[in-house]
Structure formats: structure tokens, C-alpha cells
Specification:
Blueprint lengths: L1 E2 L7 E2 L17 H14 L3 H28 L2 H10 L32 H18 L1
Antiparallel strand pairs: 1-2
Helix pairs in contact: 1-2
Length: 137
Amino acid sequence: MRRDPSGSGAATDLEVKPMRRSNFALRLQPSLMEEARKAAESEGVALNQLINVAVAEKVSTLRTEEYFQERARRADRAETLRILDRAGTGKSNPPMAGDELPPDWKRGGETKKPGRQTTRQSAALRKLSRKKVSSVR
């Protein structure tokens, strides 16, 4: 039981479990530490919080990757292709209003698909990303 925060001393039904803390000596290169401090400051959070979130995001990414790899191992390729062949064909599933493609979208043309990066944009982003990573090292 927890005491009422209003100061009345009454017990509430709310049970609060203390957060278990663990310490880990983290050795970071000075340049990476400085970038992390700047990022934490710009986000308005403590450095510790930034590192916690970054580790949580990485663990989540790894677990998601494992999940999809496991799903891929169980996949039935022939059945998937059969379903995709049926998708959007036939009169039982016509496109709904609002499903139209934008007028400037062309299949196989020079116009890019909505929400997709062009090859040139992707290459530029990869190059920029490599520069940022190498400057942190």
C-alpha cells in the first residue's frame, strides 16, 4: 500500500514497485561522449536518459529483426505468391474511393513513387551518414 500523496496519510490501493537500478561503467570515446551530451541537451533530457533510450531502441531493433527472421523461416512462399496474385484482381475487391494514385505517378517512369527516395537521394543520405559516423570515431 502507498500513502496518499496529498498528505492525508490515508492508504491508497495503488501499489508502487521501486525501480531496480543497475550501474554499468560505460567507456565512451571522448568525441562520442561529447556528441551524446549535445544530443541529450538538445532533446532536453539527462545524458543517462538518452543512453537508456538509445540502448532500448537498439535492443528493440535486434529483437524485431529476430522476429522477422523467425517469421520468414515459417513462411510458405508458394501460398504468399498465390495470395498476392489474387490481390486487387477480380470484381469482389475493387479499389475504393481515395485509393487512386497521384496523377504524376507513373509505373516504370522517371517520376518516383510517393514516399520513396530516389537512388540519388539514397546515395547522398548514405554518404552523409558515413561522414557523421566517421567524425564520431
